[in-house]
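Retro notes - structure team

What went well: the batch runner handled both jobs without manual restarts.
What didn't: labels got mixed up in the shared folder, which is why I'm recording both outputs here explicitly, each with its sequence directly above its tokens.

Job 1
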Amino acid sequence: MHHSRALAALALLATTVLATSGCALNEISVSKDPGSQHLSGVLSASGASSQGVAQTAWIAGFYPIEPDVRVNYAGGGSGAGRSDFQNGTSAFIGSDRAFDVDEIEEGPFRTCADGSDLVEIPAYISPIAVAFALEGVDELRLDAATIAGIFAGDITSWDAPEIAALNPDATLPSLAITPVHRSDKSGTTGNFTAYLDEAAGDAWSFGEVDEWPVQSGEAAQESAGMQQALRANGTIGYMDASAAAGLKTASVETGGEFVPFSPEAAAAVMDNSTIESGRAATDLAFELNRSTPGVYPIVLVSYLIGCAEYADPDEGNNAKAYFSFVVSEEGQAASAEAAGSAPISDTLRAQIEPVLEQMK
């Protein structure tokens, strides 16, 4: 299955450039409450590369609302973003996983006021594609155990019995499999291995980790490196929807069905998931339920992370305004068009909005 949204992403990138010269930005209808305060300043952010295309779209859409607030998103990966937020160099971050409860207890979070809770909201929901490059094969069906075997280095040829049994109509070549993994500390890796740890049984013994645990295959830096590596015949890798445009992607078994990669099937996971226990009221970290039939089970739920109370109140007001745009219908439509993500539901938005009201 091919997904091509590169033109939309480029259009939104051009829109961002126009914003710096004061030109009209996009076709989204947005407005600012006439009674709201004037905001200005710079929001420096970093984190998940999976959010890169979406952040470009959000920044472009935010500009007409708050033209005196400059938002810079440097990317760098979820692990780097979490470090930046803790040491105070990022006003907010994107992260493909929420902070663990013990990480929050240990701190510190120098961007936040003393004693502040964190704000962690799911803002970017995307399927993680199992993308492959295999000449003569356009459709591929895989289950969790087979995916785990491939990435653990136990299944090494494309015509292996485990793959052939799932794809009886495919002509599979006798060709070595080159599994490609992220070389950086990555929330995408964390979400991918969380799925394998939960669904693959004994075929995956490495647990849920942000840093790739297996010394085999090929390593690629961030989403862009993964996309580049998947140009070679015989490769297979994992990436979020924004990086999968133009690549072939596998259907993945869940509940006895093979479900194609799609934002809609991924979003259905959230409908059956609950907020983790032991979290502050402003911390909406979800425990995912991936087992419902008909859902696409390998899902990246990427968070915007900030402070309930900022050490700098102006920074807090700016972050509150930006977060509010991101989760709005307009903001979610922009990221869906540009990055192929699934817009958050009205139910989830209703959970998020009271959290944002507490930001300062």
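Job 2
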Amino acid sequence: MELAEDVKTSLQKLPSRRVQELVVEVLQELKWVGVEEIEVTPGSSLGDGLMALIYRVRATGRLARAEKARASFVVKHTPRNKARRDVFDVPMLFANEHSFYENVVPALSRHCGPLAVAKFFHSITDGEHDALILEDLKEQSFRLADRRKGLDLRHCRVVLAALARLHAASFVLKEKNAAAFEQLRPRVKDMFWDADREFAFKPFTTSCFEETLRTLKAYFGGDDHENKYIEAFLRLSERGYDFIAASVRSTASRLQVVTHGDCWTNNLLFKYADEQPDSPSDVRFLDYQLTRITTPAADVTYFLFTSPKCQTMTDNYDHLLNSYHASFSSILEQHHMDPEKIFSRRCLDEEMARMAPYGLTSAGIVVPAVCVPPEFTPDMDKVLGQTRDDFVQEYAKQMKADTPEARLQLASLLKHCVDRGFFKDL
């Protein structure tokens, strides 16, 4: 397909020639015979993406019979900063997400129907110019919520229903074709908590424990050993990365499902009924780089501890779990499966309690990004250093958790865990 010089110039705003060529390949697969105009713009705000650069590509052109054509894509590309790529092993993250779209989505959708994911077009996983091309969900009126406001009850119920469908799809696949589910295990890798990932993420997690402890001390004040909440967090931080990793990995086989792995506000796009911001009607999940096979409670606790208004979560905790489990049960019942035998409401409570330390640890990593004011949001590609340790140290300096909002949210989450007895066995 011939491209005009101005179209070629516009494409050069994408970070590599291979990605530019891939965009053209996608258009050709859509039966385009000519491109009249291409516009490339940033696809996210500063700080919205830690492990990737996002671009939006809008194109107008022609189909075979001179019909007008229009398309819009999101291009997700590896970061430029070497230390940033190294600390997160970005090529492996892109390979994980590629495998999710290429292998996992078709398998899970076969029996349960569409999941809350964007349409996948193409990817590059060469370790140098890693990229994915996905449909632009903003063209369907999906949009990000304001991460700093926190999600209300309606938004939470929509997200939990979509998570329930994702998790139920694994149980349905196990029931219909257990061998097909087993074939998914090597297709996704836990990039944070697998035993061979300790060298990469233990320093990062340890740094986040230290920052969270400073934040909690600023909130509670007084003598650490006279405060049951600080004492509980000290016990958790002393057990550290190894304890959390073991919690994620020790899920009973019968309860293991494909999970999102990174379900927080910035990875959620909402659609609204009649464009009313208080009436979300649908949601799509973004960013499956951290997808893993583990307990459903890992996703639920991660979402509830990072994304709602804190009081919304703590005041409505049981209601939210009821909402999740009702959606989950409905899907299983459609397939003539008994949710009480597979993943009962009581079992959900037990798993949520078991995974609460994981949830609070995740909150210590994510909540600073949620609460940081826009004017203080760090540019990850400007973090100094060329090694993993350099990046961890510089990131910790730039992304301080110690804002009033972060102090309140992390302290409220810790109180929630301790008061409900989730930390009694630490």
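One thing worth noting from job 2: Residues 91-117+142-419 form a domain with the Aminoglycoside 3'-phosphotransferase; Chain: A, domain 2 fold (CATH 3.90.1200).
We'll revisit the folder naming next retro.
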